[in-house]
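Quick review question:
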């Protein structure tokens, strides 16, 4: 639990990740120090030659508030479902469905391996956690539940989990570009445009967590991975993903943490005082920003934990001399803001995102406006039955990052308050700016696409609502979506399984409220032969049908019945999928 997907270090720093809860210290996977040093101490009041004021005193813009419910305390609407309930939980060994390959990371609780799904061929990362090494299973459950709750372009996605008597396995999206730490170690320093782009992405992820009352508590370069190999994209356009929620905690806005945890090189002064809140994460990002710009940590080469803690508590940050001579005032200004010792004065993540230096950061632009076609997709999605909506969101999680880049960029451009969601006001604004006529029922349409009733469109909800319907014809991905509901691998989805995926038990495990969906109504809409079950042919026809208006015709062809018999006889459903696809 709580170990990142970081690669093993050739040499380790004595300053490890620390925790005073759940059985004492938590070993890190190694935190090699960047080369170079800087003295600790002296004045932190570097000045701007333009204003003569200390950089840390220059005005910080105000942030924008989150719209909609907080995910950590979400009340799911009647007839809706929480997106986290679509993360399947399986009893048994992960090897039953995945072929495990080489390690991409290893820690005190287990290893992270590259894995390939036997049914679809999709690549994933599988984190294996030994039960015997976990001091408190409830903390592991909370780590999993937080990963199920979060839904953001810059946070790694949890796909499913497996459990047996000895191990817990977390199946996540595979980030093939390695750690941010590795790139820092190789490059020594990044250019300001690259650093600004990465800092902006990290702040977007952290702001999303904070706006939804979740604190990460172990932010460091090892816990940010590049989504794709860097030889496939330019440095400025690379996508970072936040991982490792082992120390994460749901926290109300007037609450404080008192547990000493995190990685000593990056923890805030108030964490050492054992009374801290969300802004401790902001400090950690400030240390990373300092490191990316200068190639050095603010604490230099200190190797003794006691001296390092003393330096962190003093909080003296120097940005004079050395690499800092060529760094802009705006960049230094943000460094000093993020590394402000007093958390009351330190900005929130949402404020930092409004900083001038980040506003000029390169963004991943593909297209930046909605089209009439997108509005048509939204309307069609709103008319789907709940099972098809849920299955569509599962489809989104199965698609490789390369197939959703355009929609991801559109989502982030529409999210003008940077809270990781699209509100009704933002949707109206985007439609107005693109010149698309605003539908009369735009508010109703928004409600139909907002599956959990949060009041906003989450990332996956948005992707599912505007995704090209041609994706529905990818038989391997459709099969993966079907399997998400066919919990016992019988080849059918029954009432009990619909309850298991969409019911209140799953919500309660994530700490959410709300009423359960009417699964009988869903079953009646899709079960065309009225046998109380949904087989893959019925599921397939539901997904590829157009204009069904929340119902599916109740006709069963002789071909479909024959295919069902073949599926039950051979157990090779993918062969059946291919046949169905050919006949449609």
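Suggested answer, residue by residue:
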């Amino acid at each position: 639990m709580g170990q990142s997907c970081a690669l093993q270090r050739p040499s380790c720093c004595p300053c490890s990740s620390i925790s005073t809860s759940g059985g004492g210290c938590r070993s890190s996977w190694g935190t090699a120090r960047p080369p170079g040093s800087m003295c600790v101490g002296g004045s932190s009041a570097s000045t701007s030659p333009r204003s003569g004021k200390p950089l840390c005193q220059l005005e910080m813009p105000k942030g924008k508030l989150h719209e909609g419910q907080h995910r950590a305390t979400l009340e799911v609407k009647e007839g809706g479902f929480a997106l986290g309930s679509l993360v399947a939980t399986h009893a048994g060994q992960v090897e039953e469905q995945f072929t495990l390959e080489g390690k991409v990371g290893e820690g005190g609780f287990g290893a992270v391996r590259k894995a390939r799904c036997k049914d679809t061929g999709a690549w994933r990362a599988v984190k294996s956690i030994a039960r015997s090494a976990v001091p408190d299973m409830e903390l592991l459950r909370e780590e999993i539940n937080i990963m199920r709750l979060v839904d953001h372009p810059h946070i790694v996605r949890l796909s499913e989990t497996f459990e047996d008597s000895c191990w817990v396995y977390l199946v996540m999206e595979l980030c093939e570009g390695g750690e941010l730490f590795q790139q820092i170690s190789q490059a020594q320093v990044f250019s300001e445009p690259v650093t600004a782009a990465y800092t902006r992405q990290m702040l977007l992820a952290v702001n999303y967590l904070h706006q939804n009352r979740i604190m990460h508590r172990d932010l460091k370069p090892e816990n940010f991975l590049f989504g794709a190999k860097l030889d496939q994209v330019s440095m400025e356009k690379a996508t970072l993903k936040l991982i490792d929620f082992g120390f994460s905690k749901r926290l109300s806005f007037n609450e404080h943490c008192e547990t000493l945890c995190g990685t000593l090189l990056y923890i805030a002064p108030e964490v050492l005082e054992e009374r801290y809140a969300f802004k401790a994460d902001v400090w950690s990002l400030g240390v990373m920003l300092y490191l990316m710009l200068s190639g050095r940590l603010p604490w230099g080469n200190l190797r003794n934990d006691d001296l390092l803690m003393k330096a962190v508590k003093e909080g003296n940050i120097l940005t004079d001399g050395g690499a800092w001579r060529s760094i802009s005032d705006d960049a230094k200004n943000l460094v000093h803001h993020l590394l402000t010792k007093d958390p009351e004065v330190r900005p929130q993540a949402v404020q930092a995102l409004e900083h001038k230096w980040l506003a000029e950061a390169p963004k991943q632009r593909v297209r930046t406006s909605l089209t009439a076609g997108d509005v048509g997709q939204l309307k069609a999605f709103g008319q789907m039955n709940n099972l098809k909506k849920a299955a569509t969101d599962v489809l989104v999680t199965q698609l490789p990052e390369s197939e959703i880049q355009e929609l991801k960029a559109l989502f982030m451009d529409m999210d003008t308050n940077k809270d990781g969601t699209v509100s009704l006001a933002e949707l109206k604004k985007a439609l107005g700016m693109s010149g698309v006529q605003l539908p009369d029922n735009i508010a109703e349409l928004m409600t139909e696409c907002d599956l959990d009733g949060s009041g906003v469109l989450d990332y996956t909800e948005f992707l599912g609502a505007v995704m090209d319907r041609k994706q529905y014809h990818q038989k391997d991905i459709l099969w993966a979506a079907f399997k998400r509901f066919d919990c016992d691998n019988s080849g059918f989805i029954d009432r009990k399984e619909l309850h298991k995926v969409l019911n209140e038990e799953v919500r309660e495990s994530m700490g959410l409220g709300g009423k359960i969906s009417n699964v009988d109504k869903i079953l009646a809409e899709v079960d065309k032969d009225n046998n109380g079950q949904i087989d893959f042919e019925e599921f397939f026809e539901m997904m590829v049908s157009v204009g069904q208006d929340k119902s599916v015709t109740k006709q069963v062809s002789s071909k479909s019945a024959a295919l069902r018999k073949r599926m039950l006889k051979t157990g090779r459903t993918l062969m059946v999928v291919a046949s169905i696809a050919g006949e449609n």
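Why it works: The chain has 22 helices and 16 strands. Residues 1-16, 20-58, 548-584 have pLDDT under 50 and may be disordered.
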